[in-house]
Structure formats: structure tokens, C-alpha cells
């Protein structure tokens, strides 16, 4: 006669003493053949713990089978899964095959693979395997050896990945390093180019005081130079250094008044840059990135 077993599993001296490393330990259901083996070993006098270690299943699975004394498992509740295990394996293999497919939203995955399920069903099937949609991280500017010292910054790119894969190459948003930049200030009127200025690094950032010291004298001199031949109306955008009270007062003291202060849209800004480049203010440089400041 078999020795009665406790209703709760005994404490193990090590983390892996009770629960085996087999992935099937996470399943709550055993098939008929596995149940028959459990019952056979129990009838032979094996304890729950011995059966668990022998068959590489959990203690609770052994306990439930022996207490129910049923070799045939009960029919699972709810609707059967819409995707088979083989289909889920194929979907995961396809998604993880490239950076493009990992960034593809679920509805596009369904379209590409011609699946007859909805995006929520696909999300549930992948979540059971540990995959979910997560924000991609900015690629740390570090070597592969030191990549894990920072988690980067969140972006708006989403990837399908498992927990712990956030630093994989296919899950990181790579961005090229920006080259050293220089601020370039320039003027033009009609089809003619006016004076220009490279803002030196040692001058610091452009604020109202430095703008009045280095730029406004150039504007004043150019307007005075052409005053006898043409009347020029000065216009500029609403940058802080341009629109500050100190800057406007300096312009007014020189007799320069703004009838319009333009807030350029991005398209207008690019158009103006193209005009400046056509007037050969700058040449292409592989060492410096030119930024136009109007």
C-alpha cells in the first residue's frame, strides 16, 4: 500500500530539486501517456517527488494525476486555439528573421503571411511564447562590450521581441553620429546675395547680446551701403536672439524697423537654404555640417 503524500510539495534544498529544466514543466496538462506513466510509478511505490524527478514534470502535476486517478485528461475548456504550435513557430521564425519584420505591426504581419486571424489573436499567441510589442531603444554610442551599461532612450519605433532582447541589434534604433556643425548666418535680397558670417565656436551660443554685437552692425552697414540705390525692408524669423526686446531696441536705434516678423515653416526654411546655396555662399564639405541661420 502506497504511503500517503502531503498535500503540499516538500521544500527543496536547491532551486532545481523539484522543478525540472524541461520546458514542458510550465504546461498545466499532461497527455494520456504521461498520466499512465505517473499512475504506474505510483502503484510501484514511488513518491510524488521521485515521480516528478523521474518523468521531468512538476510536483503539482504528479499530485493532481494521482489524486484524480484518471488516465484520460479532461477536455480543455474554452475554444481551441486558432493557431497550431507549428504555425506559431513559423510566424516567430518569420518575424525574427530581420529588423524590418520585427518592426512590422501585427496587422501587417497578418497581411504578409495571409493569416486568417485578427491582430488580437496573433498578439495572444505570441504573448504565450514571450513576445510582445515594445519600444525600440536608441543605440548606445558604446562598444558591444559595454553596451549593457545603459538602456538607451525610448523612441517611437516599435519592435516585436521577448523580454531581455531590448539590446539585440535588430531591436535597437541605430542613428548616425552627427558631424561637427557650424552656424552660418547670411542675407539676400531679390536675386542678390548679401553679407554672410560664420559663427565661430569660441563666441558661444547666439543670444541677444552677441547677436547685437556681431550681426546687427553687418545688417546696418549693408542697408546704409545700398540706401541711395534701393530701399530694403529687413525681415527675419522669430528666433529668441532675433525677437528679444534688446535686439529690437538696437535695430530701432539704427533706424531699422521690421514691418513683418516671419515665422518660417520648415518648407519655407528649406527653400531659403536652397536659394542661398545657389548663390554659392558655401561649398560642400565632408568635415563640417553647415546650418543656416536667417
Automatic annotation (TrEMBL):
- GO molecular function, one example? nucleic acid binding
Identify the domain of life: Eukaryota
Give the start-end ranges of region Disordered: 1-31
Matching entries from Pfam families are given as: HTH_23
Q: Name the chain's protein.
A: Transposase Tc1-like domain-containing protein
Top-down, what is the taxonomic lineage of the species of origin? Answer: Eukaryota, Fungi, Dikarya, Ascomycota, Pezizomycotina
Amino acid at each position: 500500500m502506497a504511503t500517503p503524500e502531503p498535500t503540499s510539495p516538500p521544500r527543496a534544498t536547491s532551486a532545481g530539486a523539484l522543478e525540472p529544466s524541461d520546458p514542458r514543466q510550465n504546461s498545466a496538462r499532461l497527455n494520456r501517456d504521461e498520466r499512465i506513466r505517473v499512475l504506474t510509478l505510483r502503484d510501484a511505490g514511488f513518491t510524488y517527488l521521485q515521480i516528478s524527478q523521474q518523468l521531468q514534470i512538476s510536483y503539482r502535476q504528479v499530485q493532481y494525476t494521482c489524486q484524480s486517478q484518471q488516465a484520460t485528461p479532461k477536455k480543455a475548456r474554452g475554444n481551441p486555439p486558432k493557431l497550431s504550435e507549428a504555425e506559431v513557430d513559423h510566424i516567430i521564425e518569420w518575424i525574427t528573421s530581420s529588423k524590418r519584420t520585427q518592426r512590422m505591426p501585427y496587422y501587417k504581419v497578418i497581411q504578409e503571411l495571409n493569416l486568417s486571424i485578427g491582430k488580437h489573436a496573433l498578439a495572444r499567441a505570441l504573448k504565450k511564447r514571450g513576445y510582445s510589442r515594445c519600444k525600440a531603444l536608441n543605440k548606445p554610442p558604446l562598444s558591444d562590450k559595454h553596451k549593457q551599461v545603459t538602456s538607451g532612450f525610448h523612441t517611437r519605433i516599435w519592435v516585436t521581441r521577448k523580454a531581455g532582447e531590448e539590446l539585440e541589434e535588430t531591436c535597437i534604433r541605430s542613428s548616425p553620429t552627427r558631424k561637427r556643425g557650424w552656424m552660418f548666418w547670411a542675407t539676400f535680397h531679390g536675386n542678390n546675395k548679401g553679407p554672410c558670417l560664420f559663427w565661430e565656436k569660441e563666441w558661444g551660443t547666439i543670444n541677444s547680446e552677441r547677436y547685437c554685437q556681431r550681426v546687427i552692425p553687418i545688417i546696418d552697414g549693408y542697408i546704409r551701403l545700398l540706401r541711395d540705390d534701393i530701399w530694403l525692408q529687413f525681415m527675419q524669423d522669430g528666433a529668441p536672439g532675433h525677437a528679444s526686446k534688446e535686439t529690437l531696441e538696437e535695430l530701432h536705434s539704427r533706424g531699422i524697423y521690421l514691418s513683418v516678423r516671419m515665422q518660417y515653416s520648415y518648407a519655407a526654411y528649406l527653400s531659403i537654404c536652397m536659394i542661398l546655396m545657389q548663390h554659392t555662399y558655401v561649398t560642400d564639405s565632408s568635415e563640417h555640417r553647415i546650418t543656416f541661420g536667417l
